[in-house]
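lol so apparently i was supposed to do this last week
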Amino acid sequence: MKSRISPNGIHLFDRLSGLNILVDELRPKEAIWSTSPRQVSVALTNLCDLHCAYCYAPKHKASLHIDQVFGWLKELDSEGGLGVGFGGGEPTLHPDFVEICKRVAGETQLAVTFTTHGHRLTSKLVERLKGSIHFARISVDGVGRTYEDQRGKQFSSLLRGLESIATLSPFGLNVVVNEHTVAELDAMSELAQKAGASELLLLPQQATAAVASMDGVVGLALQDWVSNYRGKVRLAVSEVGASGLPTCDPLPDERGLRAYAHIDATGMLRASSYSHVGAKIGDAGVLSALKRLRNTFEIQGETQP
Ligand code: SF4
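anyway here it is w/ iron/sulfur cluster bound
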């Protein structure tokens, strides 16, 4: 089990089962808290072969090198990081995607996860990834025609992707919640259960250049759906957009950059993929960039620990 020293206690995590244990009888002093964010997401590439309107990934070409990614993750692993989520763009389009996952799973204690649109999950790719992925996420925004209108791909192709991912590792469905998908949450939770998913992650739509944020009417419909949800698949919600929903946070003192950070495909460290403030990761490494980013937030008077 990997251990992490958190403001809320000693946090033990098993990446194979996903089991978390918090020994909160112990309250470690700040001087010994783990310095890495608990989770980090890494955009391996901005490349994607889909064109979703609500996509927030930058459209300029950029990709990270396997050695850079591995070096940063080694550093975060040694300072108490628990997991990495690879994304993009579409991470499976990175030429070294499999190698990166294998190396991180084999040479660190981090849980390796990734988010994919699911249309490139051939049986060959799944075979190569087996043993190096602890959890996978597949984006499913609506069913049937709604999905096809949102993602511009055939729903039948997504269903094949779901079948493939189910043979790879435990997995969850990611759902962008907007005026088109909110009415299909029941159908998506049924799909999640039928496909064997263990989580349905709700992502209230955020504003991009092409779309507005989820509006109040959709927000109320989402709140209503969540309150009445009786499905078997666990629900989760992104921190951005969770307001008004009944959430549980077992680590209330581990916020901001202590909980999570994002590395974009140009090697900038950010508080989230939506944040406009970043610190370039240079030769001094990712923890040095983290320190600079914290200082920036402190100077700006923003509450990032
Ligand atoms: S699949 Fe994901 S990365 Fe690709 S365009 Fe859609 S939202 Fe963006």
